[in-house]
Structures are given as structure tokens and as C-alpha cells.
Amino acid sequence: MKYARIKTVSSFLLCLWASCIFDTRVNSGPLTMTCIDANTDTVSVFPQLQFVFSAPLADSLVALDFSPPISARYGVYLNATHDTLSLDVMEMLDGNTRYVVRLKNPVTSRDGVVLDPSQDSLAFVTYPREQEPNNTKDLADNCASEIFGTVSDASDVDVFLCTDNKARGVFLQSINSQDSFYIVDSLSHVFSLDHQINPIDTIVFPDSIVRPVYIFVVCRIKGSEGDYELGIADK
Description:
Distance between the termini: 91 Å
Mean pLDDT: 88
Strand order of the largest sheet: 11-13-18-15-16
Largest sheet: 5 strands, mixed
Structural class: mainly beta
CATH class of the largest domain: Mainly Beta
Strand content: 35-45%
Order of helices and strands: HEEEEEEEEEEEEEEEEEEE
Number of domains: 2
């Protein structure tokens, strides 16, 4: 009988020792949200960003909040594993504006850890947008790096001035449109694309160009008007 009691106590102590070593409870750290593709503080007026959570979320319903508030259409999508959130802004944000993006409501991980909107956020500044009117050389906008604009109809022309003496050329990316462009130097020499127009095109400045250079953005064909990004090509 005494031996049985000793054996029972020993088994109990062994179980306690094992439970201390093989504790199956999850020691969850803080839940965080990190932007993984904002390589710069300045982004497009059509930002497309991804946020990664440090642990999968329990609920697929996640909303974001902008400060200042925006009226542009945008989508927020959580992936199948509930750990990556994508933001896709489909209409132009204001140019030269600092925005802060954070969660609209608290979210909870599958381990029960809560992330409050006040804990993590992303701040960025948008590239400038064209200032109307800018349809003549005298009213040209300055294009120092990147700028966004809209060709509103077939007769609309946007004119920009490039004063950078080290610029290799300029590029144009059409955004849901078929816009085109050409450049005119200070001696009124015209330089245009010598190939079929692509969604992204670059005009390289020839050695004969006389700076500063004016850039004219136009609609390629009637009915294909829309947004574009204009920028200085790599120096």
C-alpha cells in the first residue's frame, strides 16, 4: 500500500515536470501591421500598397482609414491566409499631400491578440498633379521629377517645362488611357516617338536638343482620354 502511494506521488510530480517543459500554450507577441512595398516616402497618386500582419487575423473584414479623408474609390483586400492586406486606390488622390493610413477598426489575430488603429500607421506624400490651365508654353507646369495629369478630351493639351540640364529624357505612362506626348526644344525643334505607342514610352533627348525643353501631352485618339504619369528619365 505504501509503495502504491509513492508511485502515485511520483507519477504526479513527473506530470508536473513534463507540463513545465512541454507547455503547449502559445506565447503570442504583439500583433503588428507593416507596409512591405513603400520604398520611399513619396508615392503615386494611385497608390497600390501591401500590408503584412505579424500573425493571421481571425476575421476577413478589415477596413482602412485615410487622414485627410479621401473621396477616391479604393479597394481593400485580405488574402486567403489572412496575413496580407492589399490597398488599391483607383482614382487620383490629391497631389503634394501627406496622407496617413491606418486601420479603421481594431483587428484580432487567431491567437486573440488585438491591434488597435492607434498602434500602427503608414504616412506618405503623393507626387504633384498638374495645375490647370497649362495648355500653352506660357502656362506650362514644371516637371522636376514625376507629375500626374489628365487629358480630359481630344482637344486638351497639357504642357510641362523641363529645366533639368542633366535629364536624359522624359517618360509617359498612360493610366487607363491612350495618351501620347512629344517634346519641343527652345529653338522649336519637335521630337516625337519613332515607334508604335506603348503604355510606357520614353523620349531620349538627342545631343542636338537645346534646353529647356517643353513636353506636350495629348490624346492619342478620340475617346482614349484619361490619366497619365509624366516623369524625368534616369539621369
